[in-house]
Amino acid sequence: MAAQTEVKVPIRLSTRDQSIRLEQDAGVLLVQTTLKRPQLSALVNNLLRPDAQPIPFDILINGQFLRTTIDEFLTQNGISSETTLDVEYARAFVPPLNVSSFEHDDWVSAVDVWSQDVQSGQERILSASYDGLLRVWNTSGDVLATSTAPNNGGRITSLKTARWISDKKIAAAGLDNTVRVYKYDDESRTLTTTLELYNHRWGVEDIAVSASSSRLLSASSDTTISLFSTNPKDNPAAPTTLLPTSTTASNKRQKLSKPDRTVPSRGALATLAAHTAPVSSTIFKPSDPTVAYSTSHDHTLKTWDLTTASCVDTRTTGHALLSLTALPQLNLLATGTSARHITLIDPRASATQISAMTLRGHKNAVVSLDSDPSSEFHLLSGSHDGTAMVWDVRSVRSGAAGVDAEGRVGECVYSIERESIKGGSKTHAHGEGTKVFGVRWDKSVGIVSAGEDKRVQINRGIEL
Amino acid sequence: MGPNTNPRKRKAVTREAPPPASDSGEELADGLLDGILSHSEDSSDEDQDDNDDEGDYDSEASSVIEGLSDEDEEGDDESGFESEDEEQDIREQLRKLKTSDSSSHHHDTNMDFENGGEEGLEEQDDSLKPNYTVTTDANGNPRYLYKEIDPVYDSDDSAADVSNTIGNIDLSYYDEYPHIGYDINGKKIMRPAKGEALDALLDSIDIPKGWTGLTDPTTGKPLNLSAEELDVLKRLTRNEVLEDGYDPYPEMVHYFSGVKEIMPLSAAPEPKRRFVPSKHEAKRVMKIVKAIREGRIQPYKPLEEREEEDEQIHYDVWADEKPRPEKNMHIAAPKLPPPGYEASYHPPPEYLPDKEEEAAWLEQDEEDRERDFLPRNHEALRKVPGYENFVKERFERSLDLYLAPRVRRNKLNIDPESLLPKLPNPEDLKPFPTTCAAIFRGQEGRVRSVTFDPLGIYVASGGDDGYVRIWELLTGRQVWNVKLSDEEAVDSVKWRPDKDTSILAAAAGESVYMIIPFTILSPDIEQASRDILDAGWGYAASKPSTNTNGETKEPPGKWARPGTRIEAKGVLVQVTVRSTVKTINWHRKGDYFATVSPRGQSTAVAIHTLSKHLTQLPFRRLKGIAQTAQFHPSKAIFFVATKNSIRSYDLAKQELVKILQPGAKWISSIDVHPGGDNLLVGTYDKRLLWHDLDLSTKPYKTLRFHTAAIRAVRYHQGGLPLFADASDDGSMQIFHGKVVGDMMENATIVPLKVLKGHKVKSRLGVMDVDWHPREPWCVSAGADGTSRLWC
Fold first, then answer.
1. Which residues of chain A does B474 touch, with a Cβ-Cβ cutoff of 8 Å?
2. Which residues contact A260 (CB under 8 A, 6 or more apart)?
3. What would the pLDDT profile of B469-480 be if each residue is shown by its tens digit?
4. pTM for the complete prediction?
């Protein structure tokens, strides 16, 4: 018995987080195999800064989170206690708990948070709804401003996406094929349309904003991506065929529907057309606003050079891609697919593999993605199965043997259910009534998700 | 010998001798012994008694009497007549003796009896008088002159001579012996039983029938049972039926048997009830069924009984028995040729080897020898010596058996798995739809038809509530709807196959509506669509179809504007035909569409030209009820499915190309493979048939996996080798159906997935199915009021 409890295993501590790196390498340590995560976390804290408030750490051994004792972990994975373990520690992920829910009149299709350069508590949450209205909320759940329904000649007004351009400007687009720029006045709490951008013939699925270059990208179901400038003057005149007044029928309808209130309408700087199926999502490259990425239902991820408006690179996967976000520090792009998983793709030309990693766990199409602003390894996904999931790309499990291309499979760290159905009936894969349409992870507000349950739900990890 | 024993003795005699009653009966008929029989029985008994007594007590006469009586007993075995005659003769002789010997001294010990006997004798004498007359002969002695004997049937008296075989010897000489003399053959004549022995015999025998030893309390007489009563008692003791004449085992009479009689008892034909299921039985069965349903009859044993059974301990003797190989391994010995002449012990000389051959044979190695023996001649079989190799051969054979490995070889060693057709693993045939990704809810009543728009962004559905609705694909959001009709259901919706415009055709009742759902369209697409619809206005008016007489015929289809209410929603054209339209199918270019209205006889199939607002009826007459019609995806060929056959017509040459006979009872739907060489047929009789148009008019494959009717079949039109069917059992089945361009190879069909989720409502399950134009996604219309997207 005594001999068993005294079994020790050599470990070597490491981390990928610069802020918590050990000043001097501790070398190989011998620890008892009966230790669990809290003891190892305390050990790291002792080594790191013995006097300060301890930080809870998660322990990863060989890419797997340690949830049991080291002994059991070694037995499970068939590792000898003689070998030196590479133990990686990372700031523990604090489970995001439900904070509040903002109720809407209709399905909420997208959500965005403005938290730059504002003091705590002054963050603004933007939600776009299928009823065609934009709403700006404060963090305590009050509607600060609501946009007015646009006059588009009796056509559908449902919004699909909305983004803050700055603290005063908002871009939104939807099924009426038009990208609109709104001016938000925090003082008078009004939302007014300042610009209508016409270039699409079918609904707009996603828009991306680059504040630094004041550029706007919109991805549409008509298989094109349009590049706009947020500055009205920079855009050319709108194509006349796409204006609501262009045809007699729609012009008549428009005149009948409302007194004309002129909003300047503009066209696109460039149209990026290389996809063969509806474009589902587009983003700017975080470090370089002249490069954009886009995903489409035609299974491809394309890299665009915006200065020449040309497609630079195409990565073809096996499934329709529905969402896109960047993990800048890892040089990876995460795309959600209709095949219920998230694929991490290295878009650099040097990358040989199409798929760097696959994150499996969702039961329906993954339609929204965001990265953790405080950690480069965490990823947030929203899916039509009614859950938002948090992933840690460090947690890697080798997949089925022989499947090298998608060999690395990650697992979900935390799953956020919809608050509206908590304790109710069990969720189905088709997520009827609970589909999540948009997620956003903000540093100060937390995880914001919007969905078919007509709510914006905020979850935040409460630090102890 | 007391007189009290006399009655018994008498009885014994009567038993031994023929019963007097019977005698009298017989004599009566004869009439000869009338006189004797007129006497009472008692007197005759006395008479005989007299004889016996004499035998007992008179020493001289007794011997004679004994002998006579002996004779008498022997004679009993013979016929009654003889004995009767003998008796008479004996009596006569006795009389003679008495008259001769003891006529002088009349005094005897038993005078009383003598007197009685005397009387009897006298009477007998009277009756015998006519036999002889007494005269005196020459010497003065009396002489008996006998009458002539009338030689009638029983006049013979020769038996009288056989009287005493022991001669005139006094029996006292034999006192010490058990016998009393010798018969003519020298055999001992045993002393007749007498005295105690006779008593014992009588004791054992003489209890009369029915004697009970009881006295009847009412009469005081001995209680004797009658023969009937005795019979009843006997039956009682045997446990038989008391009634007289009852036969417990009557012989069986086979009225009805398996044997077919030439002349049967009844030649009536078999009644109808032998062939008709019994209503009464059905009623009783239904009663039991009802009881089981209501739970009054528990179809299963109660649990307690089982527990009781469980309590019994069963020892499984063969629990750890290992299967042993079969021992019965008979390996037949190889057949040897029959021995020839040379193997004979005395072969013909030509078979005998000469010296050289013999030397050569001996020279040869044992294994090289052609024969393993040398023919030898022996004069006789007995000169054949013993077989010198016997021990050696036996040893080698044993060695062979010991060393040779014997393996049982199966005659046919085929793995049954290998006989199954090699189908690819469904996992390798991905992608195909596996789960329900979205539910389109909001319709009332059945959803009858669904269709994807050409870009795959929207789904349109039509149902029983008369609405046409458009849904956003992945989210399941309803983005547009219009109510076409209040009464009629929307039976079919089909999007026009053109990516630059967006026109939806919907059939409700007898009308087909052309819809531009402008609220989800951009102005230029809307305008392009409107242009296409508006192009034909006035065409029909400018060229009215006239027949030879110059009269204006009513056109088969009326193209009109549907009215402002729905025109404001985007429904722009209404085409009205003569009967309810059930199916719409577009030509690939979108200018023509075919409608099928099964009720319309000659107007069942109509082909409409959108650009000219023109409706044509290609078939004047159609055999059978038209079910559906479809255009060939690349050629000018038109497929029309009637109730149980499919015809393909060349539209350019206007001729019949082919008639397919799927062998189905009722075709529900067809779909043509995008390649154009294969056809899928779904039937209401649960079958899914794959026709290869190059092969035959019969189906290439018949798939029968559904438990209810198949309502719709659909090929994936976007290049994926998939097809799906929708069935009334609430499920859809996804198949892999790869068509290879090579003519040498047939299509591979692999069942992939059963998609379940739709509820069956009033025996209708999934009504329609359609594939996404590119992705392996399909959408289904359910009778439960939902449409579902399967990814």
1. 322, 338, 365, 367, 384
2. A151, A254
3. 999 998 999 999
4. 0.67
